[in-house]
Amino acid sequence: MTELTRRQRMARQPVPMPERPPAERRVDFDEVNLGYTADLAEAEAERCLFCAHPPCVEGCPVGIDIYGFLEAIAAGDFLDAATIIAKDNSLPAICGRVCPQEVQCEGACVLAKKGKAIHIGHLERFVADYARANGGSDVAAPPFPSGRRVAIVGSGPSGLACATDLARAGHEVTVFEALHELGGVLAYGIPEFRLPKEIVAAEIAQLKDLGVRFETNAVIGMVDTVDELLTTEGYNAVFIGVGAGLPKFLGVPGEDLIGVYSANEFLTRVNLMKAYTATADTPVLDLYRKRVAVFGGGNTAMDSVRTALRLGAETAAILYRRTEAEMPARDEEVEHAKAEGVEIVTLVSPLELLPDDDTGRLGGVRLQRMDLGEPDDSGRRRPRPIDGATYDMAIDVAVIAVGNSPNPLLLRTTPGLDQTDRGTLVIDPDTCRTSRPGVFAGGDIVTGGATVILAMGHGRRAAAAIDQWLAAGA
Amino acid sequence: MNRILEARILAPDVKYFRIEAPKVARKRRAGQFVIVRVAEDGERIPLTIADAGADEGWIALIVQDVGKTTSLLNQLEVGDQLLDLAGPLGVPSEIDRFGTVVVVGGGVGTAIAYPTAVAMKQGGNRVISIIGGRSRPNVILEDELRAASAEVYPCTDDGSHGFAGFVTAKLSEVIAAEPVDRVLAMGPIPMMAAVAEVTRPHGIPTIVSLNPIMVDGTGMCGGCRVRVGGESRFACVDGPEFDAHQVEFDLLAKRNTAYEAWEHFRRLEATFS
Fold this sequence. Notes:
A: FAD/NAD(P)-binding domain, 5-stranded parallel beta sheet, B: Elongation Factor Tu (Ef-tu), domain 3, 2 domains, 7-stranded mixed beta sheet, 6-stranded antiparallel beta sheet, 9 helices, 15 strands
């Protein structure tokens, strides 16, 4: 590696992620980002100032040794870089693609102030993809079996992260998944063009190699309860990572019209059930040349609207009640969506979904114009209706992406779990312990709806606490 | 797992399966369903658990061929396996000592009504079963229901067996003849809606089992939402049984037509392949 001075490093421009042109990518489900080449990765890693106290590591919810892996990349030691990442993150190909790096590692980067933060996410993705194609990272062989058994409920990000650390600590881990496919939101929620399913499968396969057992079609709460897992099924601890279950709707008239989907349903039909393929038996409404509106401003809304485009929608719009500045979606998703032709309509709130005719199909939406008032609890300025400013927009399909509330299936058969008013689980933030001994929880069932990486952070914290709990003789 | 132990034709296009599913068999209660997938790329379909042997570890499913997945399913034989089977799902039927309970089953809906009829009898109720079909071969589970019922009234549209006419006409007769404390109706939407109108003026509590389009069956997608008492409920986690007098049947019927066009073209496609 060429030795660059600090000044030279700071003068260099960030290496952009190669991506497919919008016109090409918006008509298929192939991945949008192409990934760095080895040269691009080295060039980007070389820009790192290698801070003595790297703030990026502080910004990472799972504490990846970013300094270390960037140093390895800059030296051209890509497999070493993969091994360094693997110590803290079992799903790097996934996280490199879906983490909101701009508010985590990259947001903390000292170069961020100049708008030139190191593209840590792109580098993580490069390393993970390189390792997968070239023999994989060196993961330490599992230690001597502890003889302790842990049940993990849910195979999404929190459960997978928890499973990894527990398996590495020598515990016998079984992951229970309610659906027929593994991955939770990684399988049903995040679309192929952002996160190819073969990558999810490959990262889960590594966990299988670690000895983690997976059981699909296991609806815990309905088949075995948490109590049965802890007694008759012989598990010493349980981690609940069931995600945020039930989709929220808008609560306006007309939501039962045909053509109104929750984002969960729309994305599940397309991602999990592959409704866009000729061989799939699960339909999705024909969107070809149709007008689609997506309500919400988060990543799920962006995934939905871009999916609609790919299914042939004539127009695909985000309808959001605040302004773009308040949108919770990752910057990259918003930019990609716009480049693909998504229209972003801000400061509007739906009053009613309007029928097209008497067949019960959607034909439009009545919108209320909003402006922004004082900040609310979330720190974002509260949207307020503008008196008398309403108008109708013609749409054929609506997708509601305004969040989820906790799924009752597990909670209603598990007595003694403290819940918040919103129905999420109460945990100790340091240990992810619930109000029941031996029962831990993390991810969206606790946060009510956050990111893959925050869920993984919970999973890791819970794994550490479960390891201690087991060591203490539970 | 999910191995078929018994498979036999019950009626035209209707097949009875006994399937190895020990955990579901132990847990399941009357009124609950499973989600089944038969092929890779196949859809997830809900099927009511018609019967179960808790000790022997099997559940029974009764399947009417109404589309691609049910058609594939009905081609399976003993020894074959279902690709995926998840459950039990849904809220079990409310079983109590109600008194006289009339169980109405229409067509293959009788398979949904049967386990609840059995549970009602075990719960100490006098069970009267009214089961209908187009013609004699379409009336199913008559013998099985005799064991669970004080009286069984088969009804056929063409009069080839039992009472000639709709189940609702028979139900009106029964209500006129003796006090009825509760009615359960499982079958096609128009039948359930008609039963609700028969019992409404008498104020008889009436329960129906709804069959909206489902995807995951675990509450995640909300596609199966139905309106009951002016509120949106998810049939998979809040149901499938609801108060018939509160259900908006017209809406359910409309929502169930969402994919008619798609299904039509798939059928056409199949005829050319």
